[in-house]
Amino acid sequence: MAKRLFxxxxxxxxxxxVIPLAGVIACVIWLESGSPVLHCSLRVGRYGRPFHYxxxxxxAGHPAHRTRFGRFIGNLSLDELPVLxxxxxxxxxxxxxxSEIPEKVDLDDPAWQTILTVxxxxxxxxxLAYLDSYNETxxxxxxxxxxxxxxxxxxxxxxxxxxxxxxxxxxMGHLKGRS
Length: 179
Fold this sequence. Notes:
By secondary structure, this protein is of the alpha+beta class. It has helices spanning 2-33, 68-75, 83-89, 110-115, 125-130, 139-142, 144-152, 155-171, and strands at 38-44, 50-56, 59-60, 65-66, 93-95, 121-123.
């Protein structure tokens, strides 16, 4: 309950603060490549409930390619600003297991059943454990840190994950626009 309250209050404050920036980003995306400005992908949330993960669109064309502005906002992780809406709705938390697309989740697997008892997060132990190789790592392997988190999560663990996320975000060059 305290974690949900923290997520809601912080996401609400951040959402209010970034409204002007989000408006500018939306306008530039629309001017560069038209609408839609947002990209929604179906994900599996807590207790196996599906939800739409909302981000700013960074790709356009057929076949899809990353736009110049999309590369810029992606490098700074600004494409993730709309996920504050997912946090406010209760679909996501700041910290938790990474949400997956339905095709990668086995609802009959005991590991997934345990992981799905926790609200998914924007960042979490599975994502940090594999960083750049996350999407190339087999699902059964990359969910192990998330399984540990679901079983042993705590405020201290969340603070450690947030600190590591900020450290890696800076180290990987996101503050300098490199990735």
